[in-house]
Amino acid sequence: MVLLLIAAMPILAQAQIGRSIINKAKDKINQRIDKKVDATMDKSLDALEGKNSSASSESPSEASSSPSASSVSPSASPYIKFDFIPGEQIIYFNDLAAETPGELPIGWNSNGNGAVVTINGLPGNWVQFYKDAVYLTDNKENFSENFTVEFDLLMRRSNPKEAFPQFAFGVLASGEEAPGSNVLLKAYKKFFCTELKIQPSDYNGSHMHLETFEKYEGYLKTDVKKYGVLENFFNKPVHISMQVQKERLRVWINENKLYDLPKAIPAGTILNQLFFFVKGNGGNDDEVGYDISNIKIAKGLPDSRHKLIDEGKFTTTGILFDVNSANIKPESSGVLKDIADVLAKHPDIKVKIIGHTDADGSDQANNELSRKRAAAVKTALVKDFSIAEDRMETDGKGESVPVADNKTKEGKAQNRRVEFIKQ
Predict the structure, then answer these.
(1) Cα of 361 vs its chain's centroid, Å
(2) What is the model's pLDDT at position 157?
(3) What is the pTM of this model?
(4) What are phi and psi of 316, to 5 degrees?
(5) Is CATH 3.30.1330.60 what the domain over 304-422 is classified as, yes or no?
(6) Cα–Cα distances in Å, from 11 out to 7, 20, 25?
């Protein structure tokens, strides 16, 4: 019997080893499966929470003043349906570059809290708004009967359980009050205003509606418009564009035209201020809210066909580029399409495209940048709008031919332009 047990030991040992290997293999497989499931769930939860797994982590104190965003910029592809064209003469511009972080922009007025912040993953400075507050810019000029307004808006949410407060913005007439008067903080409907109210998400999904008021009385009110697309842009900048042509008001978010209202503004109304309002409902300010940047107000009604064909030169500040880059922003598509239409209707003409910059930076760098930007415009017209390449030549003048004062924000913005000269 003893001999039989001794003889069987190697067999028993091998069987035990075999079972051990099988068990370990099963454990390893289960561990790897669990790891992959956990990773997939983490990614899904991160997406819901608006987190960017590739971004560096922030400390709590940094997160409150510099909320993270899940995307650096909107798509660089052109806005195919976009037909917005900005005014010719810039009367107000603020990219917040010169503002002090932690404070409201100089000259602005508010009845609540607000601060200039930087945002992880996004260029430049932003103004962070807080609940239950109205904000007025430091603009002091009248807008004229034809003008445009643009700004970038960030709907910021780091906690998907927190509800957005309602956000409203528009233009107003200050009447006998100064454009930044305290009176307007509580009574911005006193003379005249337009107000687009956006609710990014609630029990009824994303929706909005637009109202105008004259002496507190309703002048026009649209039906509620559901806009589920908005939910795709949480933690990503969207570009807001408004165009007023006498009584007519049009509004876009990115390339999508939301409103085209022929009789939204009483004839002869003198508008002169841009305002923002965040209602008091919604979640914690540090976890959900709104930030804006790159405000631009311009007056006039561009006529590219007349300027280029009859006068021989068309100049625009509406072709926008990333900072210190020749990368064309998608919101430039309306201007590019307008120019392409003129060239398509007049196939016999050729143009010279000239880029210009402001005076920031060295002469050499600005000259090179302006040449690259002109070349990028030509490439866009060829690639996106099928204009023949041999009809266009390019050049850059850098900062050497200013048309406005480089000591002001508005002057710098006016100098950052692209010229089209008929050859």
Answers:
(1) 25
(2) 94
(3) 0.80
(4) -140, 145
(5) yes
(6) 8, 14, 21
